[in-house]
Known about the structure:
Elements: H1 2-24, H2 32-39, H3 43-49, H4 53-60, H5 62-77, H6 81-98, H7 100-107, H8 114-136, H9 146-161, H10 166-181
Helix pairs in contact: 1-2, 2-3, 4-7, 5-6, 5-8, 6-7, 6-8, 6-9, 6-10, 8-9, 9-10
Amino acid sequence: MIGKRSDARKNRAHLLSVARAMMQEGAITPSFNALAKRAGVGVGTVYRHFVDHQALLGGLAEEHLAELEALTARVRAENDPLVAIELLLRGTMALELKSPVIAQLLASPQSESREFMQQLTALEAIGESILARGRKAKVVRSDIRAKDLHRLVCGLDLAVRSGDKPAEAAARYVDIVLAGLRRPR
């Protein structure tokens, strides 16, 4: 039994390595057939490890998803809701710039992977709790919800990648979004 688990871990690691290489060569998300062929395995092996493309992206982004979870823990500990929202937006944008796979995951959050959907639900719940604190303190617009932040982050990622100097653009666009999130006086 231990040998099979060890082989499964090796197969999964190999598939992720091959998928990373394919993405570095320009593939947005490799098809399972192309991934299987390139990895020298049957397509069934790919499906045994990844139920859908979102699960594959989740595997490719595991370390960055852990960073995102750590970010949300820091954000949740921040007492000032505006500072918390700023930390969340800037931190998420930094992760998306570092790992475009994070952006892909957040942009199409439908998956057969229960684990990924649980992570996404937990992240949105944290975002909603931060926004609720901001609404209660009357520093955040009353009509903003976590789903809005989710969409704004996806839009920001697209915007910063459409030109040069994405890190500079991200800082500027986050400033603009933060101004729009504040409750009007």
